[in-house]
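Dear colleague,

Thank you for sharing your sequence with our group. We've completed the structure prediction you requested, and as agreed, I am returning the results in plain text so they can be pasted directly into your records. Please verify that the sequence below matches your submission; if there's any discrepancy, let me know and we will rerun it promptly.
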Amino acid sequence: MRFATLLSLHTMQTSRMGEKRLGLIVNPIAGIGGRVGLKGSDGVEIQRRALQLGAVRESESRAVQALQMVQSIGDRLEVITYPHEMGEDAARECGFEPKVVGRIERGETTAEDTRNAALALMGLNVDLLLFAGGDGTARDIYSAVGQRIPVLGIPAGVKIHSAVFGTSPRSTGALAALYLRGRASSLREAEVMDIDEEAFREGRVSARLYGYLKVPYRSELVQGQKAASGPGEQASQRAIAADITDRMQADCLYIIGPGTTTKAIASQLGLSKTLLHVDVVKGGEMVATDVRESQLLELLQGVKAKVIVTPIGGQGHIFGRGNQQISPEVIRRVGRDNVIVVSTAGKIDSLGGKPLLVDTGERAVDKMLSGYIRVVTGYDEQIVYRVSG
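Please find the predicted C-alpha cells below.
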C-alpha cells in the first residue's frame, strides 16, 4: 500500500513537472478600425468612432482560433489570463478553466491594463506569453516585459508591421503548441515596430523601431517585418499598371487595395490615390475613395466587380493586413476568379519561395483563396504562384 501511494505521488509530481503555463492577453479593441476604414484603433475617440460606424470587435474570436490549436495539450497546460474580454472569455470558450488574475472594468480596458497584465503573467513564470492585438499592443507588451520571457502575437490589429506575430491566428496557435511541447525550442529577437496613426490617416507612413521581443520561430509560421518597395521598382510598377488598365472593362467595378503598385494603376488612369486607401474605380473614373466595408457591399449590388491587391513587402499578405475593408463577404461576392494580384518580380523574389498569405478572419474564405493564382508582374507578364491560408 505504501509503495502504491509513493508511486501515485511520483506520478502526480511528474505530471506537474511536465505541465506548461501559457499566459494569455487579449486586447479587446485591437483592429476595430479596420473594416470601417479608420487605419487603426489607437485612442479613445477613434475607438468610439469605429463603434459608431458599426465596427465589430474581432480580437477575441481570433484569440479563440489560436487557442483551438493548443487544446490538444490538454491537462498538461495551465492557462493564466486576465478577466473577461482580456482573455478569460476566449479561454473559457475553448474549454479551458483558466487561472484569472488582476482586475479590469468590463468594456473599459486601456493600454495600462495590457502592461499590467503582462507584468502579472511574467511574475507567475509563464512559459509563453500569447497576446492578441496589433503593433500598439506589441509595444505595450515590450514596454512591460522586454526580453525577459518568450512572447508570441496573434494578429488582430489593422496595421501589423512588427515581426512578433504569426502569419494567422491558427499559425500562431500551432507555433505556440510546438513551443510548449518542446518541438520549436529556438527563439529569435523579433522587431516591434509601430507607426504614427495620425500621419497614417493622412497618407504618410512614419514607422519606428521600438525594440525586440523574444519569439518562438518557425519560418513558415511567423511573419516577417514589413518591407517598403524600393525606388528601383517604379518601372516595373508602371508596366504592371499599363497591363491592368489596358485590360479594364468599362462596365466593371474595380476595388483597388492599398500599396505602391496599386497606386501606380490609379496614376496610369490619371486618378489620385493614396498608398493606404481602398478605392473604387469604374469606367476610368473614381467612384468612391477610402471606402468602408459597408460602402463596398452597397456598391457591389447587382454589378460585375474585380478586386486588385498587391502583397505586403516582406510578409506576403494579400488580404488581412491593412485592407480589412475588403472583407470575407466582399470577397465572396466578387469571387475568387475576379481577384487580381499584382506584384513586381522583386517583391515575389524577396519571399524566397514562401507563399502569398491570406488572413481574412473567416476560415472558409481563406480556404477558398488558397491554391495557385496568377500574379501580374509586368506588361503581358504573369506567373502562377501559391496562396496559403
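Summary note from our side: The chain has two domains: 2-216, 231-388.

Kind regards,
the structure core
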